[in-house]
Amino acid sequence: MMAPHTGLERRVLAALDATPPRIPVVIGGCGSGRTTLLHVLKDRMGREQCQYVDVERAASTPERFQLAVAAASPFTLNGAFAAAPQEPATSARAAFDRTLGLISRARARHDAPATFLLDEVLEFRTFESFPGLRHVLREMLHTMAASDNRFVLTSRYVARAHRLLRDGDPRFEVIHLPPLGAAEVTAMLPPMGNTSTEDRDYLGRTIQVLADGRAAYVHALSEAAASMSGRGGDPISALTALLTGEGALASWCGHRYELRLHKARGYGALKAILEILAEDEPLTLTEIAHRLHRTPGSTKDYLSWLEDVDLIVSRQKRYSFSDPLLRLWVRLHCRPVPPSVDEVAREVQAYAMARLPQAEPAHAMATAGGGDRKDWGIIEID
Q1: Using one digit for the tens of pLDDT, what is the confidence trace for 120-168?
Q2: Domain-located, residue 117
Q3: pTM
Q4: 344 and 326 within one domain
Q5: What contacts 283, CB < 8 A, 6 or more positions away?
């Protein structure tokens, strides 16, 4: 299976090779392919030339983070290996200063500039609760801009990244991960026996639409559809299975739903708004406030907090989910009782019919090679 967004790899490498090198900031929602891109870059550059750091997983205290990153580093600092044992820093401020020193002055093999691949860079905000570290992110960005080392940064928080970089150094280049196109999805499909080119193209188009072009959803749907039949299976039935009970997408959507809500304020009210929009969208501020039984002023604050973590978007003063598949998950799973298989099937069928071009069901029912009939797009419920 080919990696998604292969064209962006060339754009990122071009930014790093520029004079002076630019600093790509790759942003996109959960499952859009940011981490995959960084690992592709790591494999291409080689371990001696770059260091990948999952900031979200490693950020605890500044002291522990600094020791962990240094211990895993392939670089030298001031002529000595960064991974050599060292005395712990005497304070959170001192530990963070050591981290800044490592990323700004570390050298790769043959004294070449070091490259740092920092996944979820906004999670450095974790350190801002420690004494003397109120402006960690701005210090970090300033240090990167002043260094001759190279950096690739990622974040799932689009609105926050734009706000942070609004008045930043021109070296920072924001790169949005676009949705995968139908051709890219088709190229990512696993082998499916003797499936014809026409059926494979149709399956790619269908999965691209159902998954909204999001790489993680595409991968899950492709694998599930392929496992249902040697000739490609039924993508709508596959989506139903993935959203039922402990299905992979049910668990994945639940994870990103909670992750984003916990990064925002007003947890309970925000859940209520998402449930309202799951029932009906797009809605105006007034409509949401009426259904929420709150004032327009407080509702506007709640909506801004949801926008801050990219759970919703506003177009022409009307609000809706940024991720249609997450909206479907909320409809199904944010309720007192888990949905039955039949309920999931009905909701998925309605979701698919609303998104797929009306010509596609006709193709789905067309005969394939050998006279076999494909029932893609149709779910029968007794």
Answers
A1: 999 999 999 899 999 999 999 999 999 999 999 999 999 999 999 988 7
A2: yes
A3: 0.81
A4: no
A5: 276, 277, 291, 318, 319, 320
